[in-house]
Structures are given as structure tokens and as C-alpha cells.
Design a protein that fits this description.
Layout: H1 7-21, H2 25-31, E1 53-54, H3 77-82, H4 86-102, E2 107-108, H5 132-148, E3 152-153, E4 155-158, E5 171-173, H6 176-183, H7 185-194, E6 198-201, E7 205-206, E8 209-210, H8 215-225, E9 231-234, H9 242-247, H10 263-270, H11 276-293, H12 312-323, E10 325-329, E11 339-342, H13 344-347, H14 367-374, E12 380-383, E13 393-394, E14 399-406, E15 412-418, E16 422-426, E17 441-448, E18 454-461, E19 464-470, E20 473-480, H15 489-492, E21 496-503, E22 509-516, E23 527-535, H16 541-554, E24 557-563, H17 584-594, E25 598-603, E26 618-621, H18 629-638, E27 668-670, H19 678-685, E28 702-710, E29 713-720, E30 726-736, E31 747-756, E32 761-767, E33 774-777, E34 782-785, E35 789-795, E36 801-808
Parallel strand pairs: 1-2, 2-3, 4-6, 5-7, 5-27, 6-9, 11-12, 11-24, 24-25, 25-26
Antiparallel strand pairs: 7-8, 10-26, 13-23, 14-15, 14-17, 16-23, 17-22, 18-21, 18-23, 19-20, 19-22, 28-29, 29-32, 30-31, 30-35, 33-34, 35-36
Helix pairs in contact: 1-11, 2-10, 2-11, 4-5, 4-12, 5-7, 12-18, 14-18, 16-17
The structure holds beta-D-glucopyranose.
Beta-D-glucopyranose (BGC) is lined by residues 55-56, 109, 156, 235-236, 356, 488.
Length: 809
């Protein structure tokens, strides 16, 4: 339901109306169309500044896509959800608002609240959970935090953008019940509890209508039923038609300057194809956003005094350690004695997932750095063990590069720093003195100093003509093409290997990659984007494993960090399996055979298979832990802090996972499982996952003493019976007493965080929401409260039940 308007809202609304009244049709149509990749045009005649949007979920990139414009990088959204702590999500939001203000950004393109329908979803790491209730509460905390800092949010991607395959065209076929109970539910919770100032409509189609034109879901449900009063922006390049989009409730078409709005919209009104009053509605929504964020003169912003400054590094570290999920511990943790740290990702930490959620942190603490700082000198050794990077990655460590821009005559017209091998210049974001009209070639040039001797591979990501020269030899001078129709393929596609060069460790060589810029006529975005990619010599896998085994044998504990790569988890494509890439499974098995005290840290944003999990002493999931991941890991491994996470999503093997399909057939992806995804499906199928939803261990013990029910309020007393302070996530599941094949056996209906000193007893109070008792009735097209008897199950995970009670409603 819509929030009641405050006096300040009324006053802002009056300014919005007055501003709207002063705009002519052309100005209105222009305002609804991006002026470039990230901004809307300013309209000085009404005192409107240019509204700036930026990704995204774990940090604020700003309007430039380059590693020299740095941002605090928080842990992945899956990690944030694993904290099961909406208050921590709120604090993350406050930090992101601070980052946005620092970068001149008004609106964050986040949070992502699509669901973990299939573990193969490529953007799984960027969404929170398989459970709509947990997703909604984490998302609401996040939105509340960001907006308390005066910055808008755009909750995305509305709706059912749960996989990446054919994401621009896929028609997801879902029942109204599945939409209401699962996919729409987080959006509804967030609208109701956090009043987001924006929403992003997705690329995909739902039940035959593309989401940027979905009148029913946008105008009737989101705005009509739920009372959403923010602006609706298309996902980037998702708007396909002028009249269809406007009538479907789309306010802003991004990016610009060429969109279905602007001049095309003004013409559509003049031709009588659409009423100007519909344009006014969209403009009103944008002006309301501008008023809220302080970009419209005369309107008091929603937040006049920004919250107190937050220490980003400290918060990133706190969230990381609170998110780590200890799924198994046979006494190996906290660490004791000497440690052999093993794994490529222990040295080259993978802290975030790929795609539009990418930001560039000013520093990254790797597990190796974190543990080196935390452990006594001489107690840590390191071995690579196995390298999952069996593919090319952005040229980075050891490269010193700059970009040189030339015109058609070969004259240098500008230069720019290039902190790594990736060039991403969008719209007018070009080096000083360079315009799209004058720019002919960009040369990435500099030196590379190898850290390993052997054959190094160099590659190119991007479309068009390239020349690649290493150490004076030209290895490639040709044109790269693509079969993909994804317009972002040059961002998310795979690099092509183009040269293999024998190099010597420590001896620098000259490197140059020249690209002839050619932006197709009519391209919606003027962007220059390409990447110099690189891969170090790969060593014999058996030799690497043998070295690691030696190191493991010589230490009291072996800590193996295993990871996915950005060719495995990223926006733009789905996964095809849940395996750890490369020889990492062999590595873990060999190390575990050599040292019974083997701890495995799983550095991935979403589930991977852990076939050796029963053979190791401990397994800790660290997600993509953000820039302070290594420091947080050291906190948790040494026992200075407790790992606080619980699984927000079931982890199991692909073969057992009940819902996996992400590939459409003839353009359609039917959600045939209805309301049964995640634990709802695992339970229905009677299958046992590797680690159930809600599971996670700490370093102390808890006794669940009592459950008291007062109507729908559950009071649970728990005692910390261990010998150190701890934090517990008390989970409450609601199970209809009479099994009903159409309903999940139980659903998460509430949870609470408690902290207690050794011996202390504390009370968790959980209010079970009315919605937990409701189902969507497709006959009456309304929520139906299912009366009857329910079991309240107080648990440590969906299967680890500690107390039960009954309520009759
Ligand atoms: C993504 C959005 C993102 C936008 C802008 C799209 O490809 O799906 O999540 O906000 O790009 O980067």
C-alpha cells in the first residue's frame, strides 16, 4: 500500500506540478530519454539538474568505467543475504549513498532482487536468495539505507529476470500464482516497507509481453495495487517501442541519446498516437525523483542532512565476516599452529562478480595478505596448487599501460591513463581533447613485466579491427567479429587468444594493442570498448598439486582457497555446470589426503559442487567477499571473529537440483515448477542437498530453550552454551499441519538475530506476517488466507528443527 504522504511530500508534489506546467511537449519528451550512458538532460528553464544514475549492487562505479575511478567494493549480494541481517543491509546502503554523493550520482541502479530460481543463473551472485521473504527483507534494508542518504534506488529487474540466456528476448511463462508468491514478492515487500524511488524494468518478456511494456504488471500491480510512486527506467536498451513503452508505464528509456522516447515520443503525441497526459504522468514521476534527490530547484530534498560518515573499509570487512558460512567444521577451525595456504585465489583474490555490477576498488586484501598480517611470522607458507584461470583475463598485474588516441591522419589527439587492459569509454566519456568525430584509433601501449618464465598468452576482447604487438612482433592484424546478438557482447564475451610469447620473469617487454574505432551508424550508444587480455604460463597441474601436497604435509593445517572465475560467473551468460574450474577438485582431494586438518574456503558468488566435502575437516563459503575479503577471512579463520553467515540458498549438486532449466525452447522458458523453487522444490522432490537452506555454524553452541506463541508472535529463548560470545540467526518456518500438494511443506516465515555472551540466555521475537498464511488464488485473482492449523518450527536451518508449536488461524 502507498505510504501516507507527509507534508514534505505534498510540498514537493506542488513544486513538481508547477515545474511540469512550465514544460512544453519537446522538453518533456527529451527528459524521458537518456542523454548519454548514465544521465538525463538538465532542463535549466525549470531548475532541473541532470540526473545521474550508476551501477550498482556492491559499490558505486560512477559514470566512468575505469580502474582509476575507484569505489568501495562490498561483498556480493549473495554474501549480504547470507548475513540474514536487514540492519546490516541498511548500513551497506548508507555507505553506498555516501559513495554516490562523492561521485555525483543521484540514483543507484540496485538492488537486484530476482530470485535464485536455477543455480545455473549467471547473475546468481548478484541476487540475494531463493526465498522471496529473505530477499524482500534484505532488499528493503538496503533501499532504506541508500535512500536515508538522499540517494535514489532502482529495484531491479522487474520481473522474472532470473537467468541470462537470451535475456533480451526470452519469454518467461509463469503462472500468476508463481509470480505473486515468488517473483513479485520481494518487489512488493520493498515497495511496502522501503518506498523505493525507482524500479528498473527487465529485458525479458513475461507471459508474452516484454517487461518495458507490461501494463498489467507495472501499471496495475506495481503502481495500482502496491502504490509505487517512483520512476520506472528501462534496463539498458530494453525499451523497444515508443507508444507501447509509454502506455506500459515506462518513464525513462536508457541509455541515450538515441532512444524510443525524445523526438520519437513528441512525434507520437503530435500524430495522435498517444495522449500528452500519459507523457505528463511519466514526467511527473521523473520530476518527483529529482525533487527527492535534490536535483529540482525549489523542492526540499527528502534528506537534508546526510547521515554520519561511514568507514567503508571497516564496513566491507564487517559484512564479509558476517557473511561467511561455515558449513562444516570437524574442529579444524579456528586455526591452530602453522598454516599452508594453497590456491591461486588465495593470492589473486576474486572479490566480485562480472558485468555491470563491477566496480574498481582502490585496494584488495587477498587471503594471502590477510593471513600474513594476522599470523605470527614464520607460521604461513603459500603454494598455488591449481590455477582455475585456464582462460584469458583482463591484463592487469605487471602491466603498465596508457591509451593513446589518434585521428585519421595518425596525429595524437589525446591520451588517458589505463590502469589495466580494459578500455570502456561510453558516450562523451572520452579523454580530454578527443571527440567521436575526430577519434580514429586507440592504442593501448606500455610494458609488461612477467612474474613467471614461459609461454604467455595475449588476447583481445572486442569487435572490429585490432593490431596486437608484443616485444616488437605483430601477432594479430585483423578484424574480430561475433555471432551473438547481445549488444553488450564486447563487455561480457570471451577474449580471443591471439599470441603466445615466450617471456622471462622480471624482464619487461613492450606491448601494444591498437583498435580502429568504428561505431555502427545508428548505434544507440557511442561506446569505445575493448580489452587486452593475458594469461600467465600454465604449469603442469600434477607438479603444482605435488608442491601443494608437500606444503600441506609440513603444516599443522592446510587452507585451500578454491574459486570460480569471471568466465564462470558473470552477467551476460548462464553457467553450464556447477564444477570448480581447472584442477581444483583434484587439488583438494590430494591435500586432504596429505593433511587431515584441511580447511577449504570456497570463493564463489553462487553454489558450486564440493564432491570432496566429507573428506575435509572444514568448509567455509566466502562468496565474492569484496575488497576486504582477505582481512575478514583472517579474522574468521584465526577465531578473532565468528563466521556469521547462514545459507540464503540451498547448495547441492546440479544432478539433484530440482529446477535447473535456463535455456529457452523456441524463445520460451516455462516456469513449469510453479511455486516450487529452492528449498520448496528440494523438499517436494524429497532430495537431500549438500547443505540446506539456512545452514551455517558459528564457534559457540546454542540451546533452544522455549517457544512461546502469542497469536502470530513467537518468542524464542535461546542460550549460548558455548564458551565464547556468539551470534545466532533464529529461523522460524511455517508448515501447514495438513499436507497440501499445491503448497510448499514449509516456508520461511520470520527470523531474528540475537547475540549472547557465554552462558547468557536471550529472547528472539519473531512476528509471523499474514502473507505467510496466504496463497494466491487464481480463481478469484486475489490473496486467500488459508485458515487451519500450522506448525511453527524454530530451526537452525530448514532441517535442523529445535522447537515446535502449533497455531490455529
Ligand atoms: C544490466 C543492468 C544494469 C545496466 C546498466 C544492464 O545490462 O542488466 O542491471 O543496471 O546494464 O549497466
Amino acid at each position: 500500500m502507498a505510504a501516507t504522504r507527509t507534508q514534505a511530500d505534498e510540498a514537493r508534489e506542488a513544486v513538481v506540478e508547477a515545474a511540469l506546467a512550465r514544460l512544453d511537449l519537446d522538453a518533456k519528451a527529451r527528459l524521458l530519454s537518456g542523454q548519454d550512458m548514465w544521465t538525463l538532460p538538465a532542463l535549466p528553464e525549470i531548475g532541473l539538474a541532470s540526473l545521474v544514475m550508476s551501477d550498482g549492487p556492491i559499490g558505486v562505479r560512477g559514470v566512468r568505467w575505469t580502474a582509476d575511478d575507484t569505489s568501495v567494493a562490498l561483498p556480493s549480494p549473495t554474501a549480504l543475504a547470507a548475513t540474514w541481517d536487514p540492519e546490516l543491509a541498511r548500513r551497506a546502503g548508507v555507505l553506498l549513498a555516501q559513495e554516490a554523493r562523492r561521485k555525483g550520482v543521484h540514483v543507484l541502479l540496485a538492488p537486484t532482487v530476482n530470485l535464485h530460481r536455477s543455480p545455473l543463473g549467471g547473475r546468481h551472485f548478484e541476487a540475494y536468495s531463493e526465498d522471496p521473504y529473505l530477499t524482500g527483507l534484505i532488499g528493503a534494508g538496503y533501499v532504506t539505507g541508500v535512500q536515508s542518504g538522499g540517494i535514489g534506488t532502482t529495484v531491479k529487474h522487474f520481473v522474472a529476470n532470473d537467468a541470462e540466456t537470451d535475456r533480451f528476448t526470452v519469454n518467461n511463462i509463469a503462472s500468476e500464482r508463481a509470480l505473486r508468491e515468488l517473483y513479485l514478492a520481494p518487489f512488493e515487500t520493498i515497495v511496502e516497507n522501503a518506498h523505493p524511488w525507482g524500479i528498473m524494468t527487465a529485458y525479458n518478456t513475461v507471459n508474452g509481453t516484454t517487461m518495458t511494456e507490461h501494463r498489467y504488471l507495472v501499471n496495475e500491480i506495481l503502481r495500482g495495487e502496491w502504490g509505487f510512486d517512483g520512476y520506472n527506467v528501462s534496463d539498458w536498451m530494453a525499451a523497444r517501442s515508443t507508444v507501447g513503452a509509454l502506455e506500459g508505464g515506462l518513464d525513462v528509456a536508457m541509455p541515450g541519446p538515441d532512444t524510443v522516447y525524445g523526438e520519437a515520443l513528441a512525434a507520437a503525441v503530435r500524430d495522435g498516437k498517444v495522449e500528452e497526459s500519459v507523457v505528463d504522468t511519466a514526467v511527473r514521476n521523473v520530476l518527483r525523483l529529482a525533487a527527492r534527490v535534490g536535483a529540482l530547484e525549489g523542492a526540499e530534498p527528502a534528506v537534508t542532512e546526510p547521515p554520519a560518515q561511514v568507514d567503508g573499509e571497516a564496513l566491507a570487512r564487517e559484512i564479509a565476516r558476517r557473511s561467511f558460512v561455515l558449513v562444516r567444521n570437524q574442529g579444524a577451525l579456528p586455526l591452530r599452529g602453522t598454516v599452508a595456504l594453497i590456491g591461486a585465489a588465495a593470492r589473486d583474490a576474486r572479490v566480485l562478480g562480472g558485468g555491470s555490477a563491477t566496480v574498481f576498488p582502490a585496494r584488495i586484501v587477498s587471503p594471502l595478505e590477510g593471513l600474513t598480517a594476522a599470523l605470527p611470522e614464520g607460521s604461513l607458507t603459500y603454494a598455488v596448487g591449481a590455477d582455475p584461470n585456464t582462460e584469458l583475463a583482463v591484463a592487469d598485474k605487471g602491466f603498465t599501460l596508457r591509451a593513446v588516441c589518434r585521428d585519421a591522419e595518425g596525429r595524437v589527439i589525446g591520451t588517458a591513463s589505463a590502469p589495466n587492459g580494459q578500455i570502456q569509454w561510453m558516450g562523451s566519456d572520452l579523454p580530454d581533447g578527443v571527440t567521436h568525430e575526430t577519434l580514429h584509433t586507440v592504442e593501448l601501449t606500455g610494458t609488461y613485466t612477467p612474474r613467471e618464465t614461459g609461454p604467455h598468452t595475449f588476447g583481445i576482447k572486442g569487435l572490429g579491427a585490432f593490431t596486437l604487438t608484443v616485444a616488437g612482433t605483430t601477432y594479430y592484424d585483423d578484424v574480430q567479429g561475433t555471432d551473438s546478438d547481445d549488444p553488450f557482447i564486447s563487455f561480457f564475451g570471451a577474449p580471443e587468444p591471439r599470441a603466445q610469447v615466450e617471456l622471462t620473469a622480471g624482464e619487461p617487454v613492450e606491448v601494444s594493442l591498437t583498435h580502429v574505432v568504428s561505431i555502427p551508424e545508428g548505434a544507440p550508444i557511442k561506446a569505445v570498448g575493448f580489452t587486452l587480455a593475458h594469461q600467465e604460463p600454465t604449469r603442469d597441474p600434477d607438479e603444482l598439486i605435488a608442491e601443494a601436497v608437500e606444503a600441506a604435509r609440513a603444516a599443522d593445517t592446510a587452507v585451500v582457497v578454491v574459486a570460480t572465475t569471471d568466465r564462470v560467473e558473470s552477467e551476460g551468460f548462464d553457467r553450464t555446470d556447477l564444477n570448480l574450474p581447472g584442477h581444483q577438485d583434484d587439488l583438494v582431494r590430494a591435500v586432504a589426503a596429505a593433511n587431515p586438518n584441511t580447511v577449504v574456503v570456497v570463493n564463489s558468488g553462487s553454489p558450486v559442487e564440493l564432491p570432496w566435502r566429507e573428506d575435509v575437516a572444514a568448509v567455509l563459503l566466502s562468496w565474492f567477499p569484496g575488497q576486504e575479503g582477505g582481512a575478514a577471512l583472517a579474522d574468521v579463520l584465526t577465531g578473532a571473529e565468528e563466521p556469521g553467515g547462514r545459507l540464503p540458498t540451498t547448495w547441492g549438486s546440479l544432478a539433484d537440483a530440482p529446477v535447473t532449466q535456463v535455456v529457452p525452447t523456441d524463445g520460451e522458458l516455462p516456469y513449469t515448477e510453479g511455486v516450487f523453487i529452492g528449498y520448496r522444490a528440494w523438499e517436494k522432490e524429497g532430495r537431500t542437498p549438500s547443505y540446506p537452506f539456512g545452514h551455517g555454524l558459528g564457534y559457540t553452541e546454542w540451546t533452544y530453550q522455549s517457544l512461546e506463541l502469542d497469536g502470530t508472535t513467537a518468542r524464542i529463548r535461546v542460550q549460548n552454551t558455548g564458551d565464547r560470545p556468539g551470534r545466532e540467526v533464529v529461523q522460524v518456518y511455517l508448515a501447514p499441519a495438513e499436507p497440501d500438494a499445491e503448497r510448499p511443506a514449509r516456508v520461511l516465515a520470520g527470523f531474528a538475530q540475537v547475540a549472547a555472551a557465554p552462558g547468557e540466555t536471550v529472547e528472539a521475537v519473531v512476528e509471523i506476517p499474514r502473507r505467510a498464511f496466504e496463497i494466491w488464488d487464481e480463481k478469484t485473482n486475489s490473496w486467500s488466507f488459508v485458515k487451519g492449523s500450522y506448525e511453527i518450527q524454530v530451526s537452525r536451518s530448514i532441517v535442523d528443527r529445535r522447537l515446535t508449536g502449533t497455531i490455529n488461524v
